[in-house]
């Protein structure tokens, strides 16, 4: 269930996170990115680096930590769903299973994780952020 269900959850978010000419972060999301990562460019480079460091297949995520009220970059191996394994609420995911990038980028994952920001649907990501900011939850995940 974790693998197949996680794959469904992750890809459902991933497809909504992508859009031609995705735009740029704005409003409350841009303010939070600046607060938590100093700049949008720093968010992009940090997220790409952490996602590239995944050994094998997995996902890089920009998520919202409901306990701290801050944005956080987290990686998950395989198809592990972010919220169920970490308590972090997913906003934007980068799929680094080879099927996601190999035909276009071959084995140069770093080019893919850099380019994906060009098609990031910041309207969707901003809506997800706005929605989770309205939640008042505390999450405790026990392994």
What does the model show?
By secondary structure, the protein is α+β, with helices and mostly antiparallel strands. It has one domain (2-133): 3-Layer(bab) Sandwich (minor pseudopilin epsh fold), CATH 3.55.40.20. 47% of the residues lie in helices and 16% in strands. It contains 7 helices and 3 strands. The chain has helices at residues 2-16, 27-37, 40-52, 82-86, 102-105, 109-115, 122-133; strands spanning 58-65, 70-77, 89-95. It has a 3-stranded antiparallel sheet. A hairpin with a 4-residue loop joins β1 and β2 (70-77). α3 runs antiparallel to α6 (109-115). It is globular. The relative contact order is 0.21. The model has no long low-confidence stretch (mean pLDDT 90).
Tags for this model:
143 residues; alpha+beta; minor pseudopilin epsh fold; three-stranded antiparallel beta sheet; 3 strands; 47% helix
Architecture blueprint of SSEs:
Layout: H1 2-16, H2 27-37, H3 40-52, E1 58-65, E2 70-77, H4 82-86, E3 89-95, H5 102-105, H6 109-115, H7 122-133
Antiparallel strand pairs: 1-2, 1-3
Helix pairs in contact: 3-6
- Would you count the extended β strands for me? 3
Question: DSSP strand (E) fraction?
Answer: 15-25%
How would you state the average pLDDT, rounded? 90
CATH structural architecture: 3-Layer(bab) Sandwich
Number of domains: 1
Structural class: alpha+beta
What is the fourth-level CATH superfamily? Iron/manganese superoxide dismutase, C-terminal domain
- SSE sequence, one letter per element: HHHEEHEHHH
Taken from the alpha-carbon principal axes, the silhouette is globular
- Going across the major beta sheet, what is the strand order? 2-1-3
Uncertain stretches of 5 or more adjacent residues = none
Pfam families: Sod_Fe_C
InterPro entries: Fe/Mn_Superoxide_Dismutase, Mn/Fe_SOD, Mn/Fe_SOD_BS, Mn/Fe_SOD_C, Mn/Fe_SOD_N_sf, SOD_C_sf
GO molecular function, one term: manganese ion binding
Catalytic activity: 2 superoxide + 2 H(+) = H2O2 + O2
């Amino acid at each position: 269930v974790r693998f197949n269900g996680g794959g469904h959850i992750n890809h459902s978010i991933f497809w909504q996170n992508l859009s031609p000419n995705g735009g740029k972060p704005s409003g409350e999301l841009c303010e939070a990115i600046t607060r938590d990562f100093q700049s949008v460019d720093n968010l992009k480079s940090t997220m790409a680096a952490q996602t590239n460091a995944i050994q094998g297949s997995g996902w890089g995520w920009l998520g919202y930590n409901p306990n701290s009220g801050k944005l956080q970059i987290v990686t998950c191996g395989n198809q592990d769903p972010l919220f169920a394994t970490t308590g972090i609420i997913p906003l934007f995911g980068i799929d680094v299973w080879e099927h996601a990038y190999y035909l276009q980028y071959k084995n140069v994952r770093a080019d893919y994780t850099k380019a994906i920001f060009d098609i990031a649907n910041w309207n969707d990501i901003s809506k997800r952020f706005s929605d989770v900011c309205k939640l008042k939850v505390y999450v405790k995940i026990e392994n």
